[in-house]
Amino acid sequence: MNKAVVIFSGGQDSTTCLVQALQQYDEVHAITYDYGQRHRQEIEVAKAVAKKLGVKAHKVMDVTLLNELAASSLTRDDIAVSHELQDNGLPNSFVPGRNILFLTLAGIYAYQVGAKTLITGVCETDFSGYPDCRDEFVKSMNSALALGMDYQLEIKTPLMWLNKAETWAMADHYASLELVKNESLTCYNGIVGAGCGDCPACLLRANGLKDYLDNKSKIMDDYLNKA
Fold first, then answer.
1. What's the sign of the alpha-carbon dihedral 216, 219, 225, 227?
2. Which of 42, 60, 80, 95 is deepest in the core (most CB within 10 A)?
3. How far apart are CA 95 and CA 65, in angstroms?
4. Could you tell me where the beta strands, DSSP code E, fall in 125-213?
């Protein structure tokens, strides 16, 4: 049986990846992480979306220890989300070590359930400056996991080279544009759908959607050429 594990936050990117995986694999497992994030509503959103999509195996994993270790505007209520970069050149929404931990735990889970594919919605094209969303990082983690578990696990990143408009095209291609648009949660302030309209995540999402709707045919062709 062809099995996959999807790291699923309930946001635009991971929802689009989950929709695709459900059409490509015989058995799909979704993992949502509770890491003490400020927009905690995403956990409930992930549960609701997974249920609506008919995901039979959805695990919410408690990794709140990350909240104690990593200071970020996404893990601390007293740190406001900022559009300005920090002195190290990274946005203050960057959670150090988050994807290292997420991929490691998802890899262990994949090993246990016999899945040879691990899917994550990270993207280098629109990655907000996060170093743990780069292709080089994912390949390095893939090698470490395969070696460390002696298990031929493949980490797939369907969005790695797509911009946000093309990610919307991908959702549309899988007949899930309205679901992703109205029921996913990307907003750093925890507002479902279009979100607060001001945080960096909302602006990136909204600009991508506008671009796609304004240039639908061209962008769909661009997506299909990359898919």
1. negative
2. 42
3. 12
4. 154-156
Structure tokens at 162: 């797509």
34 with 60: CB under 8 angstroms?
yes
- Encode 26-48 in three state secondary structure: CEEEEEEEECCCCCCHHHHHHHH
Tokens of 57: 């195996």
Residue whose structure tokens are 């490691």: 104
Short-list 179, 22, 16, 5, CA closest to 103: 5
| Gap between the Cα atoms of 204 and 125, Å rounded | 12
pLDDT in tens, the chain (227 residues): 899 999 999 999 999 999 999 999 999 999 999 987 767 788 999 999 999 999 999 999 998 876 665 555 555 455 555 455 555 555 555 667 789 999 999 999 999 999 999 999 999 876 567 788 899 999 999 999 999 999 999 999 999 999 999 999 999 999 999 999 999 999 988 899 999 998 888 999 999 999 999 999 999 999 999 99
